[in-house]
Design brief:
The protein is an all-alpha fold and 81 residues long. It is 53% helix and 0% strand. It has helices at residues 2-24, 31-38, 40-46, 50-54.
């Protein structure tokens, strides 16, 4: 259950960052670079107006997998009196 909640939180944060990047027209995630490597023919058609026209409209399917280990070690240490 903790892993699922953490996955949801991470996904919310990444999607919020992506939305902000799209608003600022700043592809700091490197999605254009990935498009260039995987589909160079498509990249050649969109490269001139990638940040202003195409990147703000990109839809991202994000899958987050989280594995929590040693959760007991994240607590504060026991205080010795």
């Amino acid at each position: 259950m903790l892993e699922q909640e953490k996955e949801k939180a991470i996904k919310r944060e990444v999607m919020a960052a992506l939305k902000k990047a799209q608003e600022l027209q700043s592809d700091f995630f490197g999605l254009g670079d990935r498009l260039y490597r995987e589909k160079p023919d498509v990249w050649m058609k969109v490269k001139d107006d990638w940040n202003t026209r195409w990147f703000p409209r990109v839809e991202v399917d994000l899958k987050v997998t989280c594995e929590l280990r040693r959760t007991g070690e994240t607590a504060d240490p026991v205080q010795i009196r």
